[in-house]
Every structure is written in C-alpha cells, then in structure tokens.
Design goal:
The protein has 312 residues and is an alpha/beta fold. Helix content is 28%, strand content 13%. The structure holds iron/sulfur cluster. The site of iron/sulfur cluster has 14 residues, from helix 9.
Length: 312
C-alpha cells in the first residue's frame, strides 16, 4: 500500500519547496513514484479547494485517513501573545493544525532550518520556534518528549534551504523503514555527518592559510570573509546545488545555515577574529596550537597557491 505524506508551510519563505522543485535526475515526481509515496497535500502544488482540504484534514485527524509522513516547512508561529494568530489557516492558528497532524503522523520531518530550529523566523518578533528545538535548546513547539507514532522524534533536515537531495534521501529511508541515526540535534548522521569544509575546492588554501580579504579571489574564506564551513554540518560540497556548484565554489562563504543558531548575529561576510584568527574554531581545537600550525603553514605555502593560480 502506498505511503502518504502531507506538506505544511508555516512561518518561512517557502524556499525549501522551491528547492525541492529543482530536484533533478530523478525529479520530484519520479521520486514520489519510486517511493510509492502519495502526496496528499502540498500548499503550492495541490489543486484541491479549501473544502476538500478541510475534509482531508478532518479525515487525518479522526484517524480515518492514515498519515505516514508529516513534512513541516517554516517555523511554528506562536505570536501574538501565544495565540498563533500571526499565521492562520482558514481563520484558525496554523500551529493548532501542526499539533493535530503531528499527533497522527507516523513520522514528523522538519524541512529546513526554520522548522528544525526556528531559523530566520525564530529570530523575528512573531514568537516562532522550531518543531522540537529552539536553536540548540530542546523543546520547541512540540516539546522535548514528543515522539511520532513510529516512536521517532522529529527528524530535522536543516538548511536554508535544505538541499532537495537530502529531502529525497530522508523520505526514501523513512519509507524503506530504515532506522535513521540522528545526531544531538536530531539531524540524520548519514546526511549531515560531513562538514561543508570537506570537499570544498579551497581546502588547499585553507591548509596553508592562504586567505582572502575581498571577493573574486581563490583563497580560503574562513579567516576574514565569514566562512563557517569547518563548523557546519551539511553536504553542500559533496552534493552540489543544481548538480553543479556550491556557495564556496562561487566565492561566497558558507553562512552556516544548517547550524541550530543560524542566523548568527554578526555580519555574514565578515569573520569575527583577533589578528586574523577566527574567534570560533572547529570543536576541540587547541587555540595556541592552531595558531602555531597556521603560522607555519602560511610560511610554507607553495608559490602557486600564494599566486592563486590553482585549486579552484
Ligand atoms: S572557503 Fe570555507 S569551506 Fe572552503 S576551505 Fe575555506 S573554510 Fe573551508
């Protein structure tokens, strides 16, 4: 029997849906077909009218219609004053619909950083939060103890937007019944186990601390230009956007959009640093040792890197 999915858009920009539509080889329809996954509703793709939609929701909430996967995109808006009336569906707070559907779903998937951790919406005045986290703090909208009918907590797929291949892979694993191992922020380890830094074409420049202070050059963007690649979990340099590129490949720093605390409060294109050494270093690094290593590495940098003649 086909599995079913329902997609909600809450407090966000809809970018995860737009990214999903860019899925290629296979595309979204091919993926749904291959997984035998029936998309019961998607606010941008479905053609059902409001009454049909109401009937569908009633059937799911009453248990008459089985719901396997609830995908939530965007943060859950609770304002003003906890009423949720800043984000309504048919005159009622959308947060109530999230709550009702989450109780019935076998799996709940947070699609994008807003749904997972609050993201940009969570940093605004609408009292928005993630499904089961508010930034790094457990709880969020559904509460720390929430588990879906399968027994799994919310599966977080952060990204601003999340890569469509990540959504397809997660849905594939869920439908296949594979147990997804989750990290401490409930993102699947198999999809978020690498850092964006791994696979970056500027790695050799990073190694020798050949760094940039302006756009358009080939060196590393970590020390001055705001790159969070070494601290950010995600597949951006392993699974390329539109099968061809990534931020760092086109000279834009990684903004750390999969991190629970995204967006950071400091400017995206600047690295807070002291004497060129970033204030934030990857976990577990000994600062004095790192400084000594990078100073020696910079002195040993090959001429071709210093001249920016190779590597990208
Ligand atoms: S540009 Fe960013 S991701 Fe690339 S090597 Fe430098 S720090 Fe790593």
């Amino acid at each position: 029997m086909a599995r079913t999915a329902y997609w909600m858009q809450c407090g966000g920009c809809g970018g995860d849906s737009i990214a999903l539509l860019n899925l290629q080889s296979p595309d979204l329809l091919e993926v749904l077909r291959a997984l035998d996954l029936e998309l019961l509703y998607h606010p941008s793709l479905s053609t059902v009218g409001p009454r049909e939609h109401d009937a569908l929701v009633r059937a799911i909430v009453s248990g008459e219609r089985a719901l396997d996967v609830l995908c939530v995109e965007g943060a859950i808006v609770r304002g003003p004053g906890g009423t949720g009336m800043f984000d309504v569906s048919r005159g009622r707070p959308r947060k109530d619909l999230v709550s009702a559907l989450a109780q019935q779903a076998r799996w709940v998937v947070a699609v994008g950083t807003c749904a997972a951790y609050g993201g940009i919406s969570g940093a605004s005045v609408v009292e928005a939060t993630g499904l089961q986290f508010h930034q790094r703090t457990r709880g969020g909208f559904l509460g720390e103890g929430f588990v879906a009918k399968s027994g799994a907590p919310v599966i977080n797929l952060p990204g601003c937007p999340v890569q469509p291949e990540t959504v397809a892979a997660a849905l594939g694993a869920i439908v296949a019944g594979d147990a997804l191992e989750l990290d401490e922020h409930q993102a699947p380890v198999s999809l978020y186990g690498l850092r964006v830094h791994q696979g970056c074409t500027r790695n050799e420049y990073h190694e020798y601390r050949v760094e940039e202070r302006g756009f358009g050059e080939r060196g590393c963007l970590f020390f001055h230009m705001g790159c969070e690649g070494p601290m950010t979990r995600g597949a951006c340099n392993r699974v390329l956007w539109n099968q061809r590129s990534s931020k760092t490949r086109v000279g834009v720093p990684c903004f750390g959009c999969t991190r629970p605390e995204f967006p950071r409060p400091t400017p995206f294109f600047e690295t807070p640093n002291i004497e060129g050494l970033p204030l934030e270093l990857p976990d577990g690094i000994n600062r004095p040792h790192y400084l000594a290593y990078k100073t020696m590495a910079a002195a040993a940098a090959p001429l071709r890197l210093r001249k920016r003649t190779s590597g990208v």
